[in-house]
Design brief:
elongated; Rieske Iron-sulfur Protein; 4 helices; Alpha-D-Glucose-1,6-Bisphosphate, Chain A, domain 4; binds FE2/S2 (inorganic) cluster; alpha+beta; 7-stranded antiparallel β-sheet; binds fe (ii) ion
């Protein structure tokens, strides 16, 4: 629930970038980085508000969406590491033609900070981002200015480390999916291991010609489930099972019931069905078809 102040400020925002505004702001400095990803993944990442608290927990404690569209998104963000719950209102406006986006804090700590990012393609699998930091007023002196800039550069180094993993993971998940869609089911069984030696505390990831599955021990039985999140193909094999029998995707936090495969609150499709597990002569197999 937004406060009246937050709602009022959100309603007063526009959904297009005002490039002239920069001239009234103080430019602190920038952060430039080459990233081993392509522009499609980068732009997808800019629009993807949902990943922020899951992939970047040191910068975002929570996110509540106010609105989103082709223009970008607007949300209330929980500030991490504060004694009392503290929120910022933030929006990210995208100029998709220019591969340019602006995030603006428009309420709460850091109000008035604008961060302008220009992404540029360098090759099929490399881009560069130029992240430019603006504040409403010049800090008191050069030392204060350098301290704020250093803080922001560090924060963006961490954010882009985390986003690089996400974008590369997503790109390879898309390539895996194309391969699996083109693949023919291969009859037969895939050996998982001997029941006597399989580690019940571990999960085993098995790839077939048509998908990737996780085999793990849960409530006294070996079970198999899809290792690919139906939302945006996030990796599910490393998630612990919680006390309610659910696994959580690390990219956007969607939860799936291990028994039914259903997503927790119907937020997305259910997990795709996994092949059966077969035990023969003390050995565990995944039936590949
Ligand atoms: S990829 Fe989005 S929750 Fe799994
Ligand atoms: Fe991100």
């Amino acid at each position: 629930m937004l406060t009246d102040l937050e709602r009022g400020k959100a309603d007063a925002r526009t959904n297009t970038i005002d490039y002239d505004r920069i001239s009234g702001l103080h430019y602190l400095g920038n952060y430039v980085r080459r990233l081993p990803t392509n522009m499609a993944r980068m732009m997808e990442n800019a629009y993807d508000w949902e990943h922020l608290p899951y992939v970047h927990p040191s910068s975002f404690a929570s996110i509540d969406l106010v609105d989103s569209g082709d223009w970008g998104w607007r949300a209330r963000i929980g500030v991490p590491g504060t004694m009392e719950p503290t929120y910022q209102m933030l929006d990210l406006l995208v100029d998709a033609q220019k591969n340019y986006w602006v995030s603006t804090v428009f309420n709460g700590p850091g109000e008035g900070i604008e961060i302008h990012t220009q992404a540029t393609t360098l090759s099929d699998d490399e881009i560069q981002v130029d992240v430019r930091f603006y504040v409403p007023e010049a800090p008191g002196d050069d030392a204060a200015s350098a301290a704020i800039l250093g803080y922001m550069q560090n924060q963006y180094a961490t954010l882009y480390d985390e986003d690089t993993d996400l974008m590369q993971g997503r790109q390879s998940a898309l390539e895996d999916r194309s391969r699996w869609r083109a693949g023919k089911p291969a009859p037969g069984e895939i050996h998982v291991g001997a029941l006597a030696t399989l580690d019940t505390a571990q999960s085993y990831t098995i790839e077939t010609t048509t998908g990737r599955y996780c085999v793990r021990y849960w409530q006294g039985d070996w079970i198999a489930h899809s290792a690919v999140c139906p939302h945006q193909l996030g990796p599910l094999q490393d998630s612990d099972v919680d006390s309610e029998g659910r696994i959580t995707c690390p990219w956007h936090g969607y939860k799936f019931d291990l028994k039914t495969g259903e997503s927790n609150d119907g937020a997305c499709a259910a997990l795709s069905a996994a092949p059966d597990l077969v035990v023969r002569d003390g050995e565990l197999y995944l039936a590949a078809t």
